Amino acid sequence: ARPIRLTDYRAPDFVIPETRLAFDLHPTQTQVKATYRIERRGAADAPLVLLGERLILKTLRLDGVEVAPEAYALTPECLTLSGVPDRFTLEIDVEINPQDNKMLEGLYMSSGRYCTQCEAEGFRKIVYFPDRPDVLSKYTVRLRAPKAGFPRLLSNGNLIDSGEEGTFHYAVWEDPFPKPAYLFALVAGELDVLEDRFVTMSGRTVDLKIFVDPGMSARAAYAMDALKRSMRWDEETYGREYDLHLFMIVAVRDFNFGAMENKGLNIFNASLLLADAQTATDLDYERIESVVAHEYFHNWSGNRVTCRDWFQLCLKEGLTVFRDQSFSGDQRGHAVQRIKDVKMLRARQFPEDAGPLAHPVRPAAYLKIDNFYTATIYEKGAEIVGMLKTVVGAETYRRALDHYFETHDGTAATLEDFLSSFEAVTGQDFSPWLKWYVQAGTPVLSLSATYDGDTQRLTLTVSQMTPPTPAQAHKAPVPIPVRLGLLSGAGAPLSFRFAGETVPEALFVLTEARAQWVLEDVTEAPVISALRGFSAPVKLTLTEPEAHRFARFRGDPDPFNRWEAAQSLAKALILDPHGAAADYAEALRATLTDPTLDAAFKALMTGLPTEMDLAQSLTPVDPAFIHTRRKAFKAELAAALKTDAEALYAALPAETTFSPDAASAGRRALRNALLDLIVAAPDSDADRSEATSDQAGAQAVRRPEGEAPLERDAAKPLSAKQKIAKAHYHDARNMTDMMAGLSALSQIHGAAYQDALEDFYARFKSEPLVLDKWFAVQAACPHPETLSRVRRLITHPDFDRKVPNRWRAVAQAFAANNPAIFHDASGEGYAFIAEEILSVDRFNPMTAARLIEAFGGFKRYAEPHRGLMQAVLERILGTEGLSKNVAELAGKALA
Ligand code: B3K
Ligand code: ZN
């Protein structure tokens, strides 16, 4: 297959100002009739090329006259008409089969309902069209279906007509805003609705409707609340008002990813929309809030101003992620939000940028654009917008964005257009920022300091280097904003003079490969607190005594750097085979007992770096060493803090009434983080007998299928921590606490865990979203027995590969969240995931391909992992009938 390249971009030869679609919905034989008004813009002899896949072409009429088969060319991917006039009307009738569509792209059925997913290239699976984002058209859509079973007929825009035809009915929708085909959507079926209203800043009333499975509308209340807050926030923060009279969201169970911003008709994965205390965790609430906001914000950043081509994907995604992160920060607190966002960036984007799948935020070529909905495009893209805001300041940023939205409204724009808006309002040159978009790799920022006590001068020498990445050997410097402050040796803030002013901190921007910054009036040899708030997505190296990190851990006024200091200390101590936890425990004790810090922040401070985080700091990666060392360090930390943790835990009783607000969620997060620490403590002498359960589990891997787990053979008394975890689970009044209890039990393993799993299943077997959690917790359990358990889980009657949520609950949870077992030296974990990828690739390549990432960094691993992972990738790549999606990623991973 030939890659698509950015440099090959050509403006379309034809535009389609008007599109009329008529759907006669049928599970296996849906008839689609399209009528386009077409105008030539390119060369007089350019043929009209329409894209279409898996369509049965019925008729083709040009200006009302049937086109003879010899006048057009048809291939499995396109329909070409030569010698067409400069202006004409084209009518196309096709037939499609939604029920057979298990790739969940185009028009498909989910739980007996019709729904669509068009981004990026799904519209061509509905009807022939120039399916590219720079062809914007005004849509009028007629839907027709039996009244029975399909009482709701929804599409984009406003409902302009509806009526009945015997046992059938129809609805006609008109979207007044020209849009690219990827934003088209329809939904038909039986749905309950939760309704509300929003009055916009100019006084227009917008009807808000959230459609869900019958009986579930109460669970949409939180999403509705989040939607109204998002609408208000975008008005207040960006001056962006909603533009239609109606805004609809539909929840579906079968969805390849999170949600989709179709104009006026967002479609969501039900897992990111439905919530109540009994079925959703605080993390679910948090994600619902941010995804509802994200999709809503796309109405401006993505829909009103869209992308010229898919290479500009980050124009809408990076900007919209930055907007949703700012929103969440305003709703829930910026310090905690920033830490969570950076954790996510480091967990997903940094490894991507350091491995064979590294690509620029604006890639130069692709085989399947689906493969580029990556952490780099989304998260690194958001970081670039954040840096721009940091350097120009909040007020100028707002003016630049106003300029961007006003200048490009109704058009398909590029990243250059985005940067020119900053140039327009500042008069400065922003072209150096383009390097962030076109260069892959995470820059390394090195900092060293010399202090002269006589002159009270601190000289900082800074330099940057971006490592080579595939197809990019040499990198130019990028602009790096560095927020920096100083602390005294005792950990108190230390002001200094810079550029003639005495300041508590300063913002420097490194634009060259190296620079020196001189800080004056520095009254003592300071502790440096650099890159505050993680002011740039770089890896900072700063050689300094351990005591400096402890000083920041204890008292950096910048909460991000306080957390960062703790994390970097923990990382160093865990990876050092002799690292001891005593000092770390002291500093954490001070944090946990500090009354000025909020609970959510303390919860984050209590969490140690994950095994995935640690893997990034060790070459070659030895997953078993990381697992063992982390467990040992955590046990030592937990033992040192046992009394405090238990007292703090007891002082935070479970709340009897549930509120999803940030403060309540923060208290639950802290209580659950304490539980996690408590169960990590080694057993006391009285509980020693329990220690055998680990060994029993290890043997269980080799136990013949169907035999009862060994640990259940003998009824052993529960250890003290098992009792705590068990009580936590059974006393839980909400899903957050229940899952925390279950996951604590999974860490200890043993009979109490198995009992809780059975109890959980019995309670929630008819709640698919909750059952996903039941599968996921088992797949992520770091006990060796999990290797055989995942094989049993895929034979469970509730397991279904065709439902992406359920499949990910096992496959993704295992491959991404269970490094110790996924990387088992036997290679069984790799083999399991390879088989899963290949099974799902047969019908849903987009979803299957995402799991290739699990093998992406194989070259960084020690043997036998490296060789085993390589063999698995080779086996995948050598499989006959492999999709383009999986082939592209597996091929790159091996290159
Ligand atoms: N724009 C969609 C993502 C589409 C993914 C297609 N493979 C959701 C979002 O980012 O808001
Ligand atoms: Zn998005």
UniProtKB/TrEMBL annotation:
Residues 552-689, 721-895 form the Peptidase M1 alanyl aminopeptidase C-terminal domain. Its EC number is 3.4.11.2. Residues 702-715 have a biased composition (Basic and acidic residues). Its cofactor is Zn(2+). Keywords: Aminopeptidase, Hydrolase, Metal-binding, Metalloprotease, Protease, Zinc. Residues 90-183 form the Aminopeptidase N-like N-terminal domain. Residues 441-541 form the Peptidase M1 alanyl aminopeptidase Ig-like fold domain. InterPro entries: Aminopeptidase_N-like_N, Aminopeptidase_N-like_N_sf, PepN_Ig-like_sf, Peptidase_M1, Peptidase_M1_dom, Peptidase_M1_pepN, Peptidase_M1_pepN_C, Peptidase_M1_pepN_C_sf. It catalyses: Release of an N-terminal amino acid, Xaa-|-Yaa- from a peptide, amide or arylamide. Xaa is preferably Ala, but may be most amino acids including Pro (slow action). When a terminal hydrophobic residue is followed by a prolyl residue, the two may be released as an intact Xaa-Pro dipeptide. GO terms for molecular function: alanyl aminopeptidase activity. Residues 222-430 form the Peptidase M1 membrane alanine aminopeptidase domain. Residues 685-721 are annotated as: Disordered. The keyword Hydrolase applies. Belongs to the peptidase M1 family. This is Aminopeptidase N. It comes from Asticcacaulis currens. The lineage of its organism: Bacteria, Pseudomonadati, Pseudomonadota, Alphaproteobacteria, Caulobacterales.
